[in-house]
Amino acid sequence: MPTPTQTRAYASPVDHTAYGHYGTGRLHLSPGWNRPIYPFQARITADGSSGFRAEPGRYHLYAAWVCPFAHRATIVRKLKGLEDVVSLSYVDDERDGRGWAFRERRGPDPVNGFTLLEQAYDATEKGYGGHISVPVLWDRQTGTIVSNNFPDITLDLAKQFDQWAGASVDLYPDALRPEINKLNAWIYHDVNTGVLRVARATTEDDRERTRHQVVATLERLDERLAEQRFLTGDTITEADVRLWVTLARFDTEYNRGHLISERELTDFEYLWPYARDLYQDPAFRETTQGLPTTWDAPAGRGR
Ligand SMILES: N[C@@H](CCC(=O)N[C@@H](CS)C(=O)NCC(=O)O)C(=O)O
User: Fold this and answer.
1) How do the domains of the chain map onto residue ranges?
2) Which runs of E-coded beta strand occur in the chain?
3) Active-site residue flag, 204
């Protein structure tokens, strides 16, 4: 009998006629773009006090190459050197009404042999009818989702696995937490979801206002980087990871599709070398696909 890990089970091809588009009855965005509730919000802890102890081989990350929120988790996993500690697989790039699925393009689900990510949600909460989002952090021991709440996933990978991880890389140092939290909130609103709000603006006024907010924020970040290599100083933190996933998609996706900024990322004096600087790190480079070769040039500050 093949075990689930040997089975290469795949979903049938994307079919919008049969299954509709993902979202109906699932995606609820509040008018103010407050974050929807991501219902699985357990935490992994080094001492196990949360019920989910950090252990090698216990947890699996389901990600999507196309999703910037999942991308953060894959970057942090690699920055911390957790490739042999927390396993990783990718769902297909496209979805229909069934949500994220496993197909040949990105490979099978190596843990459970699921064909649809919905099965992971359903195994955790029978009859689950909410968002089927990535990233998902799965626990092999209980056979349930620990978390689909992206900010917690990166922080737990960054902080709770130091027994096996590159403890010298501290992405969330105590002394910088207030500053990182402030930056993260700002970046989430004005950049990460700012670009999405421009795309989905329903009036021209709204579009213009949001577009200017994104551009003004990029300009402020550019100024900040004139003074220092990373957002909080001379070491990478969680805030850099949060910003980078949107910068990496800015010219080729968001700005090309929705004309947010007259200046491309490559026109920003400090943001562009900063983005390239991070891309030279394998944790960023090897978790990213589709960037033009202009990103390959190593960047000194100010160049
Ligand atoms: N947007 C979420 C992060 C997760 C997310 O949006 N993931 C997307 C893919 S990039 C997804 O799977 N969305 C499906 C859903 O939320 O129903 C947040 O702001 O917290």
Assistant:
1) 16-159, 174-296
2) 59-64, 87-91, 136-139, 144-147
3) no
